[in-house]
Write a structure and sequence with these properties.
Elements (H helix, E strand, L loop, with lengths): L20 E4 L6 H13 L4 E4 L10 H11 L7 H7 L12 H17 L2 H8 L5 E5 L2 E5 L17 H10 L4 E4 L6 E5 L2 E5 L13 E9 L2 E9 L3 H11 L3 H9 L2
Parallel strand pairs: 1-2, 4-5, 5-7
Antiparallel strand pairs: 1-8, 3-4, 6-7, 8-9
Helix pairs in contact: 2-5, 3-5, 7-8
Length: about 260
């Protein structure tokens, strides 16, 4: 298979072939954001869509998000939040910097456990840890956090030696993931690392949903990060009405 070719700084993706792939991740129970992302893939003519997990948590639509992905038969891996909620566990495996953040997380988990249906939990329980597929002639490995752990955070500013070590263990030329809610694309050790960002809970200062588009080219595969607008204020209002912490609503509208 060909190697991957990072093209993160290219203009927004404008056309799709049959091998083009969109990867959405970290929806976090935000149905309008997911709907906007899927509508954008249709506008771009992208027929192949995959999901990198964390369907639930923080947002007010856990069952609707699960139902939409199931109905569309979008291949999906589980995120750390999905794994916990599916098994009625109270620890989502998230890393919190402060005690205040941990308390917000606990309240989100409690709400999500109580408002996610058994049907949705069964759907989440059936999701795999990873998926492998091809974009043109380039093999792609999709995980939520990292190939090692579902809740490992692969931030852009981690030491290069970490990514070089992961690259040595990777059998595909492209590794695609999420979990940090901040998109980035970079090559290490001959492997293209693609963080898709977050559809439903961005944390990079841009409230628009983010997802990755991979399209084959002469060198292998090019990557762009698409951003989609949706009514984040309306979702924030739903978060408050649902009884979730208001601070989660505040963060949503500013991409924090």
């Amino acid at each position: 298979m060909k190697r991957a070719d990072a093209r993160f700084d290219q203009p927004a993706f404008v056309s799709a072939g049959p091998d083009t792939v969109a990867i959405v991740t970290d929806v976090h129970a935000n149905l309008p954001a997911l709907q906007a992302a899927l509508a954008r893939t249709e506008e771009l003519g992208i027929e192949r869509v995959f999901c990198g997990g964390d369907l639930v948590g923080y947002g007010p639509h856990p069952n609707e998000v699960c139902a939409l992905l199931a109905r569309r038969q979008i291949p999906t891996v589980h995120g750390n939040y999905d794994y916990a909620i599916a098994r009625d566990e109270e620890d989502c495996g998230c890393a919190y910097v402060t005690a205040h953040d941990r308390e917000l997380g606990r309240r989100s988990v409690d709400w999500t456990l109580a408002h996610t249906s058994r049907r949705s939990k069964d759907f989440l329980r059936g999701l795999p840890f990873d998926l492998r597929f091809a974009v043109g002639e380039v093999g792609v490995h999709l995980v939520h956090g990292s190939p090692r752990k579902v809740n490992e955070y692969l931030f852009e500013d981690k030491p290069a030696r970490l990514y070089e070590r992961l690259a040595r263990s990777e059998s595909d030329p492209a590794l695609v993931f999420g979990h940090t809610h901040k998109p980035w694309v970079r090559e290490h050790g001959g492997v293209l690392f693609v963080n898709c960002g977050s559809v439903g809970k961005p944390k990079d200062g841009d409230a628009r949903g983010a997802f990755a588009v991979l399209t084959p080219n002469a060198a292998g595969v090019a990557v762009s990060i698409e951003r989609v607008s949706y009514d984040a204020d309306a979702v924030a209002a739903e978060i408050r009405r649902a009884g979730l912490p208001g601070e989660l609503a505040d963060k949503l509208v500013v991409g924090a």
